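Dear Dr. H.,

I hope your travels went smoothly. While you were away I took the liberty of generating a structure for the chain from your last submission, since the lab meeting agenda had it listed for discussion. I wanted you to have the full record in hand beforehand rather than looking at slides cold. The sequence, exactly as received, is reproduced here:
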Amino acid sequence: MKPTFLRLAGGVAGVALAVLGVVALPVAEVSAATTEPKRTVVYYQTQYRGSTYVSPKPLLDNNTGVTDVLVAALHLNGDGTVHLNDHPPGHSRYAQMWTDLAAMRARGVRVSVMVGGAAQGSFQRLDREFATYYPRLKNVITTYGLDGVDLDVEENMSLAGIERVIDALRADFGQDFVITLAPVASALSGGGNLSGFDYETLYRERGSQIDWFNAQFYCGWGSLANTRGYDAIVNRGLIPAAKVVAGSLTDPSLCGSGYVEVTTTLRDTVRSLVAKYPTFGGVAGWEYFTSRPGGTARPWEWAGLVSSYQR
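The corresponding predicted structure, in token form, is as follows:
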């Protein structure tokens, strides 16, 4: 589970050849491994620290290698309003944020909006009252020209309901639009799950429409202290490494458990995953504003380090 702040807080199988112990990968996978950079994904929920605006733009200005910024958290409220955390997305407090994010998009950083999370209700409404609430989500995407949506379903939702949302997003925004989900890591390896539906069934039925999963390896649902949790997902033989981004806490204060030090443990785990899986999906960090080792003064340093570990 993602921690609670303002919100009351991504397959191609290789063919093993028993010749000198070499693993041969299909041409498409080799191409992806050699031409596509690994993803460095940063969740950006705390836009203000006290009264001080926290800009995401230093992630770009400091050449961190960030590929994706996920603005959190969008809520579809029961009273008909839409909030980004505690205010409407068009509130004046977000004006500079949208300007900064547009500048990042112009330089090739993908910007998505994260929907849901620990605050309950958005996905139940999309599930039960789709015709009422989906247009409100669509309007936010269109208004701000977003590149994608991250569906963080931490409440009960039907399989048919999440598939309907995915289908609508793909139909409305096309194949270049990025659709990701953010399950707890164990949900991808047959274990505990917060979403109600089964992710392996979802992947069998809609995997071609899901760009990747930002799997949460923390808060008791997985660990990046070593590669075992990530291996457990890939070894099931369904979801490929290319579609599994390893989600990590960026500071121990963000959850009661699961933080791994970025300059030591996370470094070693990521380097091992990159060596083991040529198409390793990348690393995601929850969340930006207090990321170690730079902390609130230099939170972009986390992304720079993670990008360097994937080279």
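Two observations you may find useful: Confidence is low (pLDDT under 50) at residues 3-35. The first strand starts at residue 15 and ends at 16.

With kind regards,
E. W.
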